[in-house]
Amino acid sequence: MSNIPAELKYAKSHEWVKLQADGTVVVGITDHAQHALGDLVFVETPKVGRKLAAGESCAVVESVKAASDVYAPIAGEVTDTNVTLANTPEILNTDPYEAGWMWKQTVTNPGELEVLLDAAGYEKVIAAL
Amino acid sequence: MPFIPHTDTDVKDMLAAIGASSIDALFGEIPPELQCKGLTQVPEGLSEMAVSQLMRGRAAEDRMALNFIGAGAYEHHIPAAVWEITTRGEFYSAYTPYQAEASQGTLTVLYEYQTMMTELTGMDVSNASMYDGASALAEALLMAVRCNSANPGGKVLVPKTLHPYYGEVVNSITHAQGIRQAAVDYDAKTGKTSLEALQAYEGVKPTAVVIAQPNFFGALEDVDALTDWAHAQGALVVALVNPTSLALLKPPSEWGAKGADIVCGDGQPLGAPLASGGPYYGFLTCKMAYVRQMPGRIIGRTVDLEGKPGFTLTLQAREQHIRRSKATSNICTNQGLLVTASTIYMSLLGPDGLAKVASASMANTAALVAKLTAIPGVSAVFEGPVFHEAVIRLPKPVAPVLEALADEGVLGGFDLSRHNPELGQALLVCATETKTEAQLDRYAETLRRLLAA
Predict the structure, then answer these.
(1) Interhelix angle for B398-407 vs B437-452, to 10°?
(2) ipTM greater than 0.85, yes or no?
(3) For the CA atoms of chain B, what is the radius of gyration?
(4) How many CA atoms does the CB half-sphere of A99 hold within 13 Å?
């Protein structure tokens, strides 16, 4: 059973978004996604300063058997990336919602946050898979 | 009998199963004007006996000419054991087999090959080979563009001393990807890439710089200065090298302060015979930092469940069967058979043997140039050290002289007048370790007589 924290927002493409007090967001991939990928061996995050469009492919997670794109759930500019993933990609498997975060970004259009799924909505998405 | 296993009944059953009326109907979506209605240019078929007789007759017309042409493909002695072993049933395949790990012998050979190439070039990793040297260079440039996050989208600086055919292949493969190239001039006196010409690109943030060592004219570039300049500009250095030369010259990993970043070239000199343009193979090696952007297969060493060593395909997630359109390359292949021959060739020669081949080739070319430039009207075009090729100038147009030489059984070199008209009546000559003193004399005497006539 996947862990789907109630306080986060989700994209159908299996990213989670956490709104922070300063109005920026933290982005990562869900517990369901890390489980489906298997043991991760490489994570590529977007460069700080990169301007992302909603739905744009901007990161790659690679396991022994597959490499998958990670999409920006909402538009914004990258403000920080999780550099520890470069040498310890496995933390994305063990702790996808905290230590395994991927990048932080600004929110260009707050309305896009409203379109994201809540925990119940995301649970329905993965139940239907 | 054609080698098609399906009977008419098989074909009928298959068409019925998919609901097609005929095989032609399957091609119905191709507009009629694009369909080939018949092969009118192809003559009637011949029997095996007739074909054998025809081809034997044609082969006899190939005289065993004395070859002094290099220009990218080099005649070296290949020990008989190389192809005797390569063509054994256990090795005789052009590809990494499907279920690759079931073929541990093939993977072992490829792993040994990769090890040898990393030793020759001084890089950390090698792939299992590429299609040929020119496509390896194109892939190396695409790779450099993906890797260089410091100078993204900048120009790729390509020297005018690059083999012209390599330049054409690079254009074909990279132009539609928006990669902008700039050509860097060479010094008219030395035939080497001019550092001053390169410095014209100071501050424009080039993404990559290609350095060919030796270059197309055979000249040895000032690789340290070129590499350091490129790195100071934030560019990655793509080294294009002759593998035989690396037995004598320092490896690209030692160029300048930081060494080249990606190394590529054609593997033909290491055990592949000259054959109308191929098949040859390309090699590609790089620093570990760039391995995830390296195209092609990589064989890795591992242990099985019982702890026994074995070989496996590794980092496959970069490859097209997994990454589809986002793979590091969708046009590359490996050349398993040629690589097998190369691995055996390098094993038989060893580092000392390869160094002897390289130094004998270098000495023979120096001797040939001395003999040819002693002929009145013939001169060396450039000054400075060369590996095993050099450019000479003739007092007459090159093409008719080459034809007259060929009539006497001497292939005199590569005519540069088409690709480098600025050099005048220039000829690129090469004498590898295969040439004897008597053969060098025969070329020089024949040329002297023809020019005097």
Answers:
(1) 120
(2) no
(3) 25
(4) 11
DSSP string, A39-106: SEEEEE-PPTT-EE-TT-EEEEEEESS-EEEEE-SS-EEEEEE-THHHH-TTHHHH-TTTTT--EEE-
C-alpha dist (Å) from residue B84 to B87, B271, B340: 6, 12, 11
pTM score = 0.88
**Summary count for chain B: helices (H), strands (E):** 13, 15
Contact B292 A42 (CB under 8 A): yes
User: Which of chain B's residues have a Cβ under 8 Å away from the Cβ of A68?
Assistant: none
Test B317 with A69 for CB contact under 8 angstroms: no
Question: Amino acid letter at B138?
Answer: A
E strands within B256-354? 262-266, 282-286, 299-303, 309-313
What are the tens digits of pLDDT across the range B26-57?
A: 988 999 899 888 888 888 899 999 999 999 99
Residue whose token pair is 């010409």: B197
A69 contacts chain B (CB < 8 A): yes
Nearest-Å Rg of the Cα atoms of chain A is 13
Which is it for strands B208-213 and B156-159: parallel, antiparallel or unpaired?
parallel
Mark yes or no for CB contact A62/B149 under 8 Å: no
Relative to beta strand A40-44, strand A76-81 is unpaired
Q: Name the token pair of B32.
A: 């009629």
Q: pLDDT tens digits for A13-40?
A: 999 999 999 999 999 999 999 999 999 9
Report the candidate in B211, B256, B206 with the shortest Cα–Cα distance to residue B235: B206
Could you tell me if A123 lies within 8 Å of chain B, comparing CB atoms? Answer: no
Read off φ and ψ for residue A69, nearest 5 degrees. Answer: -80, 150
Of B133, B137, B169, B142, the closest CA to residue B282 belongs to: B133
